[in-house]
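Please, structure for the following, as tokens.
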Amino acid sequence: MTKLNLSPPWKTLLKEKLAANIKAQGTSATYVSLATLHSDLTPANRTVVFRGFAGESHREETGWQSDLLTITCDKRSPKIQEIAENPNAEINW
């Protein structure tokens, strides 16, 4: 059975470049800047860790495909509540 790849072109490019950067630079290549707003609507540029795509694993096949970026940060950080209040954001490597 042929596996159908429904991923958009940006995802394929991102995964290829990220894999090359991790090989060259190590896991620090997974740190990204997440631009959001504080509660008072002033801009915030936050460092978070890109963990891949929801439901997928870079180590093994899971049978899932997703275009949902997964990031992690400390849940005690004020950014959690601030992003919940205003989920508009941009991410940059």
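The longest helix spans residues 9-25. Strands lie at 31-37, 43-53, 69-72, 90-92.
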